[in-house]
Amino acid sequence: MHTDTATVLPFPRHREERSGDPARAHVRLVLTRRGRAVLTAVAFVLGLLVAAAVLLLVALPALAGTEGEQAVSVTVEAGDTLWSYAEEFAPEGMSEQEFVAEVRALNHLPTGRVTAGQQIALPALAESAR
Length: 130
Hints:
single chain, two-stranded antiparallel ribbon, Membrane-bound Lytic Murein Transglycosylase D, Chain A, mainly alpha
C-alpha cells in the first residue's frame, strides 16, 4: 500500500498585515459630494414617507366623511333594548339590524343585551330624533 503526505500551508494573515501598516493607521472615510447628495436624498424621501404615513393615520377619519358625525352617549333605562334604540334612532337608509351591529361594535358588546344603568354610545343620531 502506498500513501502520500501533503503539506498544508497556513492562511495569510490579512488583519495583522493591515494593522501593522503605519500608512493606513490614520485613514478616515470622507463622503464625496455625490455621497452627501445621495444621503440627503434618502433622508428626504424617508421623511416624506413618515410624514405621509402620519397624515394618513390622523386624517383618515376626516377623509372617510365622519368628521361631522359624533357618537351620543345614553344611559340605558329598564326595558330598553338595542332594537328599541334602533327603531327610534337609526338614520334613514340604515336597517335596524345594521344599527344594532354598529352599536355593538362601537361599545365592544359581546351580545345584544344591555342592562339598566349601563352607559352606551349610539352612532350619529338621525336628524328627526335629535
